[in-house]
Amino acid sequence: MKAQGLNSDPWSCSVSAAIGDVFGVGTQLRVRRNKDQMAIYTVAEIREQDPANMVRMSSIARQRLGTSDTFSGTLHTPLSTKLMTDAQAESSGAFVERLADAKDHQGLVVMAPHGGRIEFNTDLQARWVAQALAGGDVSTWCCSGWRTDNGNTHSRWHVSTTDISPASFPGLATIADRGFAYAVAFHGMKANGVLIGGGAPNELKQLIRQAIKSEVGNNPVTVVNGGKNSGVSETNVVNWITAGGGGGVHIEQSSQVREKYWKPVAQAVADVFADLI
Ligand SMILES: [Zn+2]
User: Fold this and answer.
1) Are strands 28-34 and 37-47 parallel, antiparallel or unpaired?
2) What value, to the nearest 5°, has the Cα angle with vertex 220 and ends 214 and 132?
3) CA of 24 to the centre of ligand 1 (A)
4) I need a labelling partner for 271 at 20 to 30 A (CA). Which of 2, 77, 116, 131 fits?
5) Domains of the chain: which residue ranges?
6) Residue 47, pLDDT score
7) Is 40 helix (H, G, I), strand (E, B) or coil?
């Protein structure tokens, strides 16, 4: 893994043409430095001139693997290749994808791209909504990651919602072209309160806001149409997964909200969609 001076992005890398045949531009790969150090990156560029086995990333990207030096490592698909339950994934520090779907579902997809300990309780919220709407036209897609050392799980397994590639997530590939009428994604943020964003119509975001507002005590619940954590980019998975790319609802929540109110927030979201699908 060589230095990449031009790029100070911690989340991306460039690869040789040979590696690019397996991991194309825009897809994710997992770089494993040793049994304790690994992280997911998005391929930003193919460098035709580079030796076949070379990956480049910035110093700050290498620091996610515990070093700012160059090093030898191995490349893997981002997801665990072993079948395991969430409990097994948690105890082995793995990253897994879960899809609950039927081919004829086109109503609502509930998403949690950063479950497990990446943004805790968000995957549980997605499943709560699915359970509340059981028997309805609802699919769920979750990714959950854990680690077993004391390091930061977000730093190891986070893939930005605008980078997540169906080519790297087979479950997502299954539903990528479905054209859901509605999509909602649960996320966690460092800031306080709750943000209701995404490309969905303002009317829908206001309905969700009203439903959540009464469940979270004094925490502010704000509809956002732009800016940090607003999720409005058309490259955000919750937006492009909807019919015609029209837009989904992107919900960001503080740690406190996810700790104390994750169930009532999820139930409030379920109640809104129960009337729509
Ligand atoms: Zn997130």
Assistant:
1) antiparallel
2) 45
3) 23
4) 116
5) 2-76, 88-274
6) 96
7) strand
199 φ, ψ (degrees, to nearest 5): -85, 5
**Measured over all CA atoms, what is the biggest interatomic distance in the chain, rounded to whole angstroms?**
58
Q: Compute, in angstroms, the gap from residue 115 CA to the centroid of ligand 1.
A: 8
Residue keyed to tokens 């969905």: 200
Distance 18 CA to ligand 1 centre (A): 32
Mean pLDDT of the chain: 96
Summarised one tens digit per residue, pLDDT across range 59-79 is 999 999 999 999 999 999 999
262 C-alpha to center of ligand 1: Å?
Answer: 15
Its CATH class, for the domain covering 88-274, is alpha beta
Each residue's pLDDT tens digit, 39-62: 999 999 999 999 999 999 999 999
pLDDT digits (tens, 9 = 90+) for 19-35: 999 999 999 999 999 98
- The string of pLDDT tens digits covering residues 200-222 is 999 999 999 999 999 999 999 99
* Distance from Cα 237 to the centre of ligand 1, integer Å: 11
Report how far residue 173's alpha carbon sits from residue 190's, in angstroms, rounded to the nearest whole number.
30
Q: Which CATH architecture has domain 2-76?
A: Beta Barrel (2.40)
How many angstroms separate the alpha carbon of residue 55 from the centre of ligand 1? Answer: 26
Give distance in angstroms: CA of 53 to centre of ligand 1.
Answer: 32
**138 closest CA partner among 38, 272, 235:** 272
